[in-house]
Write a structure and sequence with these properties.
single chain, alpha+beta, Immunoglobulin-like, 6-stranded mixed sheet, 11 helices, 11 strands, about 50% helix, transmembrane helix, DNA binding, Lambda_DNA-bd_dom_sf
Length: about 325
């Protein structure tokens, strides 16, 4: 162990520091710190790092780094010569290969330039040759185009047959002109309005409460509207709405006619502006017998057939109740 290493080690032991703790303080590896204390400077990367590590060691121990470096220089008086010694070796290693490499690079550069120049000339020649060939082919293409036109013209009669084939399915859209549902007021009183609905077999009813209002909606079970089945009765709050789908005719009873809006199949029903109760009956034209072409005998026969159908429905109570319950649906929403 060298005198400098023993001096630094004693300073470390006086402070009761381990090499690991000193490593945390100086950021120098433990094996380098051990080499400094042992005086084995060959382990360190070089004389520059030896001086730097010794200086950091001394500063960590609270010693004067200049005095510690003087102690190191006394032990190693010529630390800088090995650093300058390798400098002549570098030119020697490069002296032999430097000119050769420069000559080789110049040769490579000249060959690359020649190759690029030749490639440029070939590219120019190829470009003009391609332009000439494209021009010649361009002159020949118009001659072939009439043949294509004639072929298309000869094939054009074939589409004439396709319209005939396509025209045949056109009559299929005939179901589209379905009659639109229309409402016609046939009778009106102070408390009851009667409407005839044509063009549909169900009613889309929407109720909108302008104010808090009571209402009741029934499904009509006969053509005269005397037999009814309750669908819904409730008090509708202001701003709320309710919608129903009724198979067949319907009967609506409202507490205040000016507090509710009634829309049937997209058509708004005028209930009036009074605050009185109002009843509205909606009969399907196919069931009411109010068509202008129907006669008295026809209406009576219709009533007989409907009465017989109602008798049948009354004789099957449970089945009627289930079918009637399935024939109507309603939803309510708040707005």
């Amino acid at each position: 162990m060298s005198e400098l290493g023993q001096f630094l080690r004693n300073a470390r032991l006086e402070k009761k520091l381990s090499l690991e703790e000193l490593q945390e303080m100086t950021k120098i590896r433990v094996r380098y710190l051990e080499a400094i204390e042992e005086g084995d400077y060959k382990v360190l990367p070089g004389s520059f790092y030896v001086r730097a590590f010794i200086k950091s060691y001394a500063e960590a121990m609270g010693l004067d780094p200049n005095e510690v470096l003087d102690m190191y220089q006394k032990v190693n008086p010529v630390p800088e010569e090995p650093e300058h010694a390798p400098e002549p070796l570098r030119p020697r290693s490069r002296s032999g290969g430097g000119p050769r490499s420069s000559d080789q690079t110049s040769k490579w550069a000249s060959t690359v330039m020649v190759v690029c120049f030749v490639a440029l000339i070939v590219g120019i020649v190829y470009f003009f040759a391609y332009q000439g060939s494209s021009g010649s082919t361009g002159g020949n293409t118009p001659e072939a185009s009439p043949n294509r036109l004639t072929e298309k013209q000869s094939e054009s009669p074939s589409p004439s047959s396709s319209p005939e084939a396509s025209a045949t399915p056109q009559p299929t859209p005939t179901p589209t002109p379905t009659p639109e549902a229309s409402l016609k007021q046939t009778e009106t009183t102070k408390s009851l309005d009667t409407y005839t609905v044509s063009g549909t077999n169900k009613l889309e009813i929407e109720l909108k409460a302008k104010d808090k209002v009571w209402y009741q909606i029934d499904q009509l079970l006969d053509t005269k509207g005397t037999k009814k089945k309750l669908i819904k009765t409730e008090t509708l709050g202001q701003g709320l709405s309710a919608s129903y789908t009724v198979e067949g005719g319907a009967f609506i009873n409202v507490g205040k006619q000016n507090s509710i809006e009634v829309t049937v199949n997209g058509q708004k029903i005028d209930l009036g502006n009074a605050s009185n109760p109002k009843k509205v009956k909606f009969l399907l034209e196919s069931d009411s017998g109010l068509s202008t072409d129907s006669t008295g005998t026809d209406s009576s026969s219709n009533s007989d057939t409907t009465n017989s159908s109602t008798n049948k429905t009354n004789s099957s109570g449970s089945k009627n109740s289930s079918s009637n319950s399935n024939s109507t649906s309603g939803t309510k929403s708040g707005r």
